[in-house]
Amino acid sequence: MDANFNAKYKEQKNDFDVLITSDKLSEGINLNRAGLIINYDIPWNPTRVIQRVGRINRIGTKVFNELFIYNLFPTERGASQVKIKEIAQQKMFLIHNALGEDAKIFDSDEEPTASGLFQKINSNPLEDENLNIETIVRNEFNKIKNEHPEIIEKINKLPNRTKTAKLLSEQNTIVLKKKGMALFSILANYKDNKIDISEKTFEELFDFVKCSYVEKRLPLSKQFWKSYEKIKVYKPQYRSGSSELTIVKKAINSLKSLLKQKKDKLNQIVIAFVDTLLKDIKHYKTLPTNTLRKLVLPENTSNEPYKELIQNIENLRRKIGDDYLEIILKRAANIEDDIIIAVENKKDS
Length: 349
Prior knowledge:
This protein has helices at about 1-5, 45-55, 75-80, 85-100, 120, 135-145, 150-155, 200-210, 220-230, 240-260, 270-285, 290-295, 305-320, 325-335, and strands at about 35-40, 70, 160-170, 170-180, 180-190, 195-200, 340-345. By secondary structure, the protein is an alpha/beta fold.
């Protein structure tokens, strides 16, 4: 291998064009006769990526004027589950700030600067306060799965309606309810012998429902059953901020306008995909807000406002596939329609 990829090797060979390796080769190896790296995976700690780049970017043995780095990330649908790109980019920002890194690893828009936060670079994402709630929950789940796999087996056997109680610094009842494809988080607060019901985001309720492995289960109180009955008749609203609703309406209007004004210039595959997008946005709401923004006709653009929209639709179609909604609906069909998890928090007296 050295003879093929190490520029310092005396008797050089050209037996290989491509070297495929695991992360084992990311340290202490000279591969400076290679000028391109493809990262098929991105570790949460980008210092590992920098180590990989260091294999071809060897100090004192310049071979190429430019080095090229290609990073493969999940599709948009997969990225919403994995979140690895967001984690890696956050870490890379810290690296630029800490070390003054002058290479652009993930994106051409990166702005390398100098500062000093070295310890942050190698911090575990479990300790990162700025992570998305989905990532935090997933990390906690994986931690439980690794340390207490028997708990996951018990969870899989729980009935659709599960109720429990535990100690907390304040007293309330939390109900997590899944109805079809919608998920609601409802809080019952006890104030002056009254029960105040309100709808919250899961992120707001996360600290109320989590507990340690050794937490003891407590018996449910009479107050719980009063709250539970009141929550059962409460009709949750599909929570969306005004700005999000505006984007939804703009996306629907833009796609409808595209079909009306440019239908004769679109091929049948694109037309069918636009119909799928409209069906999804109106009835199922599986697309994230950032994606919806790309489906809105751009303002203050050139004489052809639909050109960018069509390109965004084509890019999205390649990322998530023509049948993405059908796949999601099939998956959802195998999930129980109505699931309720209730947690009573009892104040430690």
